[in-house]
Input
Amino acid sequence: MSGRSFLMTCEHAGNYVPANYRYLFLGHEAILETHRGYDLGAGPLAEYLADTLKLPLYVNMITRLLVDSNRSKFNPELYSEFSRSLDPVVKKFLLKKYYTAYRQQVYDWIKEHARKTDSVVHISMHSFTPVLKGETRKADIGILYDDNREPEARIARQLVADLQLNAPQFVTMHNYPYLGTADGFTTYLRKEFRPKNYSGIEIEVNQKYHNRPEMEDIKKALQGALKSVMSEETALC
Output
């Protein structure tokens, strides 16, 4: 029986450093609390949306500064300046325990549910720093996707249109502040699954709203937009 299954993930939900590796950050603990350590607010936002929309949720609580689960194994940013010089054997262990273990469970879920329902819509939640390298970002919400893949592009366009209509006080943009085709977990998964079986959409929220009252409005707007997409996709199947 054909249909759509929806999944929520958050690759940079936390800034946790396992005890064995805390020495790497001695004197630099403060950086773990910044946007470099994790995606501020993305974890609670993913939890809220997964809970209210009744979606399965996978979150990675290990800091990206140890190993970044949203980068390919060949990306130079897979390890940060704090972990890059570790012994290759240790790095291999980190990769297996904190990178592969997280990504594999998400991959397995998608594979299983794509087989059962024909198609999976994967929503990957992120947040971005308001200013990067002196440049002020001009969006409040970004919807990242591959414009050449359907129905992924259709779903993403509907999300943007819904947000622009129902939450016009927030600037919502396509493929901003990053391209949806840039290196990331969804990019990897697109290579593993055909367009008709997998749609990978990243939602980016400006961190300037972290711990501000406006975040409640963003949460409600995203909930409404995703609920609308879920209803329409179900009707199409």
